[in-house]
Every structure is written in structure tokens, then in C-alpha cells.
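testing teh design pipeline on a random one, pls ignore if ur not involved
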């Protein structure tokens, strides 16, 4: 999935560069050649890896006996839910930068007070 996104972004940016007549635009044939080389290398490796992986595995041999008694799965804590993690992931960098800026402002204000 990632290579498709990366190649599509590269093609889009290159088409924009070609449209504006930029000197750094890569020729379309070169971009297509890179894609073909990537496909020629990655596709056989994927097939080879699949064949080797399937032929080298042995049947499932579980080290313990599986019980047929169903056990309840406990609820996850609130802080592991995706919406909470997204909020924390957005707040933490903002708070860090805010505190850094505030401390620097206070330091420079005290230095300015000493200078006057």
C-alpha cells in the first residue's frame, strides 16, 4: 500500500512540475521505467516468499490443550480507545511547544528587565 501512495504522489508532483515547465521535472518515461523495475523486482519476490513460507511451515502444533470453556474478555481501559489516543496525540505536542514558547518568553522578559 505504501509504495502505491509514494509512487502516485511522485507522479502527481512530477506532472505539476512538467505543467509549469520546471527544470527539475523527471521525464515521464524515466518515472515509468522506475515503476516497471520496481514491479519486476517486487512481484517475483512476493510470489517466492509466499511459496517458501507455505512450504516451510508445519501443521499447527499448539503447546497447550485448548479449553472449550468460554472466558469473558475484559473491557479495555478508556485511554486505549482510538478517539482518546488521537486526542492525546494531538494535545501533547501542542502543550510541549506552548510550554517551550512560554518559558522562552519569560526568560527573555527577565533578561529585558535586567537590561533596562
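output:
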Amino acid at each position: 500500500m505504501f509504495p502505491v501512495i509514494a509512487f502516485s504522489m511522485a507522479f502527481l508532483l512530477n506532472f505539476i512540475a512538467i505543467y509549469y515547465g520546471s527544470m527539475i521535472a523527471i521525464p515521464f518515461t524515466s518515472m515509468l521505467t522506475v515503476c516497471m523495475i520496481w514491479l519486476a523486482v517486487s512481484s517475483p519476490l512476493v510470489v517466492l516468499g509466499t511459496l517458501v513460507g507455505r512450504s516451510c511451515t508445519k501443521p499447527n502444533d499448539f503447546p497447550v490443550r485448548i479449553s472449550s470453556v468460554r472466558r469473558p474478555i475484559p473491557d479495555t481501559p478508556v485511554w486505549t480507545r482510538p478517539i482518546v489516543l488521537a486526542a492525546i496525540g494531538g494535545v501533547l505536542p501542542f502543550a510541549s511547544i506552548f510550554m517551550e514558547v512560554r518559558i522562552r518568553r519569560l526568560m527573555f522578559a527577565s533578561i529585558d528587565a535586567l537590561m533596562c
